[in-house]
């Protein structure tokens, strides 16, 4: 990916994150994620109806990588079934861990395909995705 395009996508999602701000609605599953090694901490709300992710919202304080990653994750997963979302998350985790993955399903999340070059940023890029994965697995049981 072109470095300027990568930077633009990350900055846009950091400065104008998708669905930032929580709402009062009992129909949402709540989740808190944090990174012990830095300030990154998010509260998420996930709405699932008929096995489809209808909405994901978040709020909190975090670095540019964590915030933009959360925003991109939200755009990528809303409208997907739980199984589709888990497949996307698994591919994303594989990309971050330098394993085989399908870049075609990751959409904008491909901007993190070189984050492995900065090992200390991998947790930032994974924070939201790993947290949501745990909710989806639990919901799927």
Give an overview in words:
With 141 residues, this protein is of the alpha+beta class. The chain has a single domain, classed as Sufe protein. Chain: A, CATH 3.90.1010. It contains four helices and three strands. It has helices at 3-15, 64-77, 82-96, 122-140; strands at 29-34, 41-49, 52-61. The protein has a three-stranded antiparallel sheet with strand order 1-2-3, covered by helices on one side. A hairpin with a 2-residue loop joins strand 2 (41-49) and strand 3 (52-61). Helix 1 crosses helix 2 (64-77), helix 2 packs parallel to helix 4 (122-140) and helix 3 (82-96) runs antiparallel to helix 4 (122-140). It is globular and about 40 Å long. 33% of the residues are buried. The mean pLDDT is 95.
User: Structurally, how many domains make up the residues?
Assistant: 1
Shape: globular
Give the second-level CATH assignment, the architecture: Alpha-Beta Complex
Largest sheet strand order: 1-2-3
The major sheet is characterized as: 3 strands, antiparallel
Structural class: alpha+beta
Q: Could you give the count of β-strands?
A: 3
Which runs of at least 5 residues are low in confidence (pLDDT < 50)? none
User: Could you name the CATH class?
Assistant: Alpha Beta
Q: State Rg.
A: 14 Å
Instruction: Please provide the ordered H/E string of secondary-structure elements.
Output: HEEEHHH
- The fraction of residues assigned to DSSP E strands is 15-25%
Give the number of helices: 4
Question: What is the name of the CATH topology?
Answer: Sufe protein. Chain: A
How far the N terminus sits from the C terminus, by CA atoms, comes to 37 Å
- Roughly how much helix do the residues carry, as a percent range? 40-55%
Average pLDDT works out at 95
């Amino acid at each position: 990916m072109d470095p300027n395009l990568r930077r633009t996508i990350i900055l846009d999602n950091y400065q104008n994150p998708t669905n930032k701000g929580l709402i009062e609605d009992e129909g949402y599953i709540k989740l808190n994620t944090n990174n012990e090694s830095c300030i990154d901490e998010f509260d998420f709300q996930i709405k699932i109806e008929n096995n489809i992710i209808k909405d994901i919202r978040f709020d909190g304080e975090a670095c540019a990588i964590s915030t933009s990653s959360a925003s991109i994750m939200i755009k990528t997963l809303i409208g997907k079934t739980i199984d589709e979302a888990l497949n996307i998350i698994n591919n994303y985790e594989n990309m971050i861990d330098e394993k085989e993955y399908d870049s075609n399903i990751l959409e904008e999340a491909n901007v993190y395909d070189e984050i492995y070059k900065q090992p200390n940023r991998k947790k930032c890029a994974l924070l939201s995705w790993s947290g949501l994965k745990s909710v989806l697995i639990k919901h799927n049981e």
